[in-house]
Amino acid sequence: MATTHQTHGITRQTIKNMLLDAGAVYVNYGETDERLIGATSGGNTFTVEREIKIIEIDGARGKVKGARRITEENAVLTINLLEMSAENFKLMLTAADVSDWLDTDGSTVIGKVIKPRGQILDSDYVKNIALVATVSGTDQPCVIILKNVLADDELEIELEDKEEGKPEVALSAHYDPEKVTEPPYEIRYPAVSTT
Prior knowledge:
Shape: extended
Strand content: 35-45%
Protein name: Phage major tail protein, phi13 family
Protein backbone atom coordinates (compact mmCIF):
# COMPACT_ATOMS: atom_id res chain seq x y z
CA MET A 1 0.00 0.00 0.00
CA ALA A 2 1.42 3.39 -1.03
CA THR A 3 2.19 5.99 1.64
CA THR A 4 0.60 9.39 1.09
CA HIS A 5 2.84 12.41 1.62
CA GLN A 6 1.98 16.09 1.77
CA THR A 7 2.93 18.17 -1.22
CA HIS A 8 3.67 21.26 0.92
CA GLY A 9 5.39 21.91 4.23
CA ILE A 10 2.57 23.64 6.09
CA THR A 11 1.51 22.07 9.40
CA ARG A 12 -0.30 23.25 12.54
CA GLN A 13 3.14 24.17 13.90
CA THR A 14 4.02 26.45 10.97
CA ILE A 15 2.27 29.53 12.35
CA LYS A 16 3.95 28.94 15.72
CA ASN A 17 7.48 28.73 14.33
CA MET A 18 8.13 31.90 12.34
CA LEU A 19 10.48 34.76 13.22
CA LEU A 20 8.67 38.05 12.81
CA ASP A 21 9.84 41.63 12.30
CA ALA A 22 13.32 43.15 12.66
CA GLY A 23 13.83 42.36 16.32
CA ALA A 24 15.74 44.38 18.92
CA VAL A 25 19.50 44.44 19.41
CA TYR A 26 21.04 44.38 22.88
CA VAL A 27 24.59 44.97 24.07
CA ASN A 28 25.65 42.62 26.91
CA TYR A 29 22.36 40.74 26.93
CA GLY A 30 21.61 39.16 30.33
CA GLU A 31 24.50 41.00 32.02
CA THR A 32 24.26 43.69 34.69
CA ASP A 33 25.30 46.35 32.13
CA GLU A 34 22.77 45.24 29.48
CA ARG A 35 21.50 48.01 27.20
CA LEU A 36 19.23 48.25 24.20
CA ILE A 37 21.34 49.47 21.27
CA GLY A 38 18.39 51.54 20.05
CA ALA A 39 16.37 51.85 16.88
CA THR A 40 17.42 50.24 13.62
CA SER A 41 15.99 50.78 10.15
CA GLY A 42 15.92 48.33 7.27
CA GLY A 43 16.17 45.16 9.31
CA ASN A 44 18.95 43.09 10.84
CA THR A 45 20.81 40.13 9.32
CA PHE A 46 22.40 37.19 11.16
CA THR A 47 24.98 35.30 9.09
CA VAL A 48 27.08 32.23 9.82
CA GLU A 49 29.91 31.76 7.34
CA ARG A 50 31.41 28.26 7.32
CA GLU A 51 34.22 26.64 5.43
CA ILE A 52 33.73 22.89 5.22
CA LYS A 53 36.56 20.74 3.95
CA ILE A 54 35.72 17.56 2.09
CA ILE A 55 38.41 15.02 2.90
CA GLU A 56 39.58 13.30 -0.25
CA ILE A 57 39.97 9.56 0.18
CA ASP A 58 41.60 7.31 -2.38
CA GLY A 59 39.16 4.77 -3.73
CA ALA A 60 36.05 6.81 -2.89
CA ARG A 61 33.81 7.55 -5.87
CA GLY A 62 32.38 10.69 -4.33
CA LYS A 63 31.62 12.36 -1.00
CA VAL A 64 31.92 9.98 1.96
CA LYS A 65 29.73 10.25 5.06
CA GLY A 66 31.84 11.44 7.98
CA ALA A 67 34.64 12.73 5.74
CA ARG A 68 33.88 16.40 6.19
CA ARG A 69 35.09 18.84 8.77
CA ILE A 70 34.42 22.45 9.60
CA THR A 71 37.70 24.36 9.22
CA GLU A 72 36.38 27.88 9.82
CA GLU A 73 33.18 29.33 11.24
CA ASN A 74 32.33 33.00 11.73
CA ALA A 75 29.12 34.60 13.00
CA VAL A 76 28.13 38.17 12.11
CA LEU A 77 25.12 40.33 12.97
CA THR A 78 24.66 43.18 10.49
CA ILE A 79 22.44 46.02 11.62
CA ASN A 80 21.32 49.29 10.05
CA LEU A 81 21.72 51.55 13.06
CA LEU A 82 19.37 54.50 13.19
CA GLU A 83 19.94 55.60 16.80
CA MET A 84 23.22 57.38 17.43
CA SER A 85 24.77 57.73 20.88
CA ALA A 86 28.29 58.03 22.29
CA GLU A 87 28.18 54.33 23.20
CA ASN A 88 27.06 53.37 19.69
CA PHE A 89 29.81 55.49 18.09
CA LYS A 90 32.38 53.75 20.32
CA LEU A 91 30.98 50.36 19.29
CA MET A 92 31.10 51.25 15.58
CA LEU A 93 34.68 52.56 15.77
CA THR A 94 35.95 49.31 17.38
CA ALA A 95 38.88 50.97 19.20
CA ALA A 96 37.93 54.27 20.83
CA ASP A 97 37.77 56.05 24.16
CA VAL A 98 34.85 58.11 25.48
CA SER A 99 35.36 61.09 27.78
CA ASP A 100 33.37 64.10 28.93
CA TRP A 101 33.06 67.10 26.63
CA LEU A 102 33.40 70.15 28.84
CA ASP A 103 32.37 73.73 28.18
CA THR A 104 35.08 76.35 27.58
CA ASP A 105 35.71 77.01 31.27
CA GLY A 106 35.87 73.26 31.98
CA SER A 107 33.18 73.26 34.64
CA THR A 108 30.13 71.82 32.88
CA VAL A 109 29.74 68.60 30.94
CA ILE A 110 27.96 69.35 27.65
CA GLY A 111 28.35 65.97 26.00
CA LYS A 112 30.81 63.20 25.18
CA VAL A 113 33.99 63.07 23.10
CA ILE A 114 34.70 59.83 21.22
CA LYS A 115 38.39 59.53 20.27
CA PRO A 116 39.52 56.71 17.99
CA ARG A 117 42.52 54.70 19.11
CA GLY A 118 45.05 52.90 16.90
CA GLN A 119 45.12 49.73 19.01
CA ILE A 120 42.38 47.25 19.89
CA LEU A 121 42.36 46.38 23.59
CA ASP A 122 40.70 43.43 25.31
CA SER A 123 38.31 45.94 26.89
CA ASP A 124 37.05 46.94 23.42
CA TYR A 125 35.43 43.54 22.93
CA VAL A 126 31.76 43.60 23.91
CA LYS A 127 30.82 40.58 26.07
CA ASN A 128 27.92 39.84 23.76
CA ILE A 129 25.47 41.28 21.26
CA ALA A 130 22.00 39.74 21.03
CA LEU A 131 19.25 39.93 18.45
CA VAL A 132 15.92 39.32 20.18
CA ALA A 133 13.18 38.43 17.69
CA THR A 134 9.51 37.60 18.04
CA VAL A 135 8.48 33.98 17.52
CA SER A 136 4.94 33.66 16.19
CA GLY A 137 2.54 31.75 18.42
CA THR A 138 4.50 32.34 21.65
CA ASP A 139 5.23 35.13 24.09
CA GLN A 140 8.87 33.98 24.28
CA PRO A 141 11.53 35.37 21.90
CA CYS A 142 14.19 33.70 19.81
CA VAL A 143 17.52 35.11 21.02
CA ILE A 144 20.64 34.97 18.86
CA ILE A 145 23.73 35.75 20.92
CA LEU A 146 27.19 36.58 19.54
CA LYS A 147 30.08 36.55 22.03
CA ASN A 148 33.26 38.66 22.26
CA VAL A 149 32.05 41.12 19.65
CA LEU A 150 33.80 43.84 17.65
CA ALA A 151 32.55 45.91 14.74
CA ASP A 152 34.15 45.03 11.40
CA ASP A 153 34.96 47.11 8.36
CA GLU A 154 34.73 50.85 7.96
CA LEU A 155 32.32 53.32 9.49
CA GLU A 156 30.32 55.19 6.88
CA ILE A 157 27.42 57.49 7.69
CA GLU A 158 25.70 58.97 4.66
CA LEU A 159 23.73 62.13 5.43
CA GLU A 160 21.47 63.77 2.88
CA ASP A 161 18.40 66.00 2.82
CA LYS A 162 15.12 64.39 3.86
CA GLU A 163 16.90 61.19 4.94
CA GLU A 164 18.27 59.78 8.18
CA GLY A 165 21.84 58.63 8.68
CA LYS A 166 21.81 54.87 9.26
CA PRO A 167 25.20 53.23 8.98
CA GLU A 168 25.39 49.53 8.27
CA VAL A 169 27.37 47.95 11.10
CA ALA A 170 28.77 44.41 10.92
CA LEU A 171 29.25 43.00 14.42
CA SER A 172 31.45 39.90 14.49
CA ALA A 173 31.75 37.24 17.17
CA HIS A 174 35.26 36.17 18.22
CA TYR A 175 36.47 32.90 19.68
CA ASP A 176 37.65 32.87 23.29
CA PRO A 177 41.37 31.99 23.19
CA GLU A 178 40.77 29.49 26.01
CA LYS A 179 37.89 27.82 24.11
CA VAL A 180 38.98 27.90 20.47
CA THR A 181 36.86 24.88 19.51
CA GLU A 182 33.64 26.38 20.89
CA PRO A 183 31.80 28.56 18.32
CA PRO A 184 31.24 32.05 19.78
CA TYR A 185 27.51 32.21 19.20
CA GLU A 186 24.31 30.46 20.24
CA ILE A 187 20.64 30.51 19.36
CA ARG A 188 18.03 30.23 22.11
CA TYR A 189 14.72 29.05 20.69
CA PRO A 190 11.63 28.82 22.94
CA ALA A 191 9.50 25.76 23.52
CA VAL A 192 6.48 25.95 21.22
CA SER A 193 3.08 24.58 22.14
CA THR A 194 2.03 21.51 20.14
CA THR A 195 -1.69 22.20 20.52
